[in-house]
Design a protein that fits this description.
By secondary structure, this protein is mostly helical. The chain contains 13 helices and no strands. Helix 1 (2-29) packs antiparallel against helix 12 (272-300), helix 9 packs across helix 10 (216-253) and helix 11 packs antiparallel against helix 12 (272-300). It is flat. 31% of the residues are buried.
Length: 307
């Protein structure tokens, strides 16, 4: 078990190095100069451009810039924002809680409704309710989140003024963005839970438990749901990464604070340090979440811990 944990930790470190290098390289290959973007109308003064580029360290070789940035990150310093004129760490501290709130709320919605719809569809397999549930799931999986967000704003904030048009950080303000983010995930989870539960219900030990006269509820909870949880847990870990990535679109559509919207603004402003920090943080959250999921496997199935 300890060697398994060590391998997973090494993989997270390798992922951090790979992501940081790729993001650093891609940003430098994208056309555009952050110094020109910062100076605006004053960009015609070449001496001023050269002086600012030297102050920001952008005239040094790329490998020196990368190693300097990595060393600073290891010390907890993500640099200074080119666009916001403040430390990147303070930008992350100001925006990260709103993204975590949005991600957790959408995860709770997608877990609850995804599980409920998937279980109902599995129990009512090949019946009208199963068909309606899967049609609902497929429809919301197919709708792009930016368009779904605009539809929800039109329906629940303009036609029916139940929520604010611009999403705030209160629970009411976060509901529509969270629902937009969660609906696609609900559809995916419902379809996955349905197939997993149907497969678990066909296992020999479940048929044996029914033949012994155990109640349907007891068989379902003890033998079906427990065996179906393991693959579902894997999907939940992967879906957290998808929800985090979805905040980039949803926070922009709802003009809501968060690191997704911060990243869009930073990309447009050629703000290298902020973009690098946001992507690295997102990758680490995703990797850490999947690490926790991996650690939960032996809890649900003790045979995994004995291998």
């Amino acid at each position: 078990m300890s060697s398994y944990v060590a391998r997973r930790l090494y993989a997270i470190v390798a992922l951090a190095i790979g992501i940081s290098f790729l993001v650093f390289l891609i940003l430098r290959l994208i056309p555009g100069d952050p110094v020109i973007a910062m100076l605006g109308m004053n960009a015609g003064d070449q001496a001023l451009v050269d002086r600012l580029r030297h102050q920001l360290g952008l005239d040094r070789p790329l490998y020196v810039q990368y190693l300097t940035w990595v060393w600073d990150v290891l010390r907890g310093d993500f640099g200074y924002s080119f666009g916001e004129d403040r430390p990147v760490t303070s930008l992350l501290a100001a925006n990260f809680p709103a993204t975590i709130q949005l991600t957790l709320l959408s995860l709770a919605l997608s877990l609850f409704f995804g599980f409920m719809l998937g279980i109902i569809a599995a129990v009512k397999r090949n019946q009208a309710l199963d068909t309606a549930t899967m049609a609902f799931a497929l429809a919301f999986m197919s709708i792009p989140s930016f368009w779904l967000g605009l539809l929800l704003i039109l329906l629940f904030a303009v036609t029916l003024p139940w929520f604010d048009v611009v999403g705030g950080t209160s629970l009411g303000g976060a509901f529509l963005p969270a629902l937009t983010l969660a609906l696609g995930s609900i559809g995916f989870k419902a379809r996955f839970v349905r197939s997993t539960v149907i497969a678990a219900m066909a296992q020999q030990h479940v048929i044996t438990a029914r033949a012994k006269g155990l109640s349907r509820a007891r068989v379902f909870v003890r033998h079906v749901l427990r065996n179906a949880l393991l693959p579902i847990l894997t999907i939940v870990g992967m879906q957290i990464g998808q929800l985090l990535a979805g905040t980039v679109i949803v926070e922009t559509v709802f003009s809501r604070p968060g690191i997704g919207r911060l990243m869009v603004q930073s990309i447009l402003a050629k703000d290298y340090p902020t973009v690098q920090a946001v992507i690295l943080i997102m990758a680490m959250v995703y990797a850490t979440t999947n690490f926790i999921v991996d650690m939960l496997y032996p809890v649900l199935d003790p045979r995994i811990g004995q291998r």
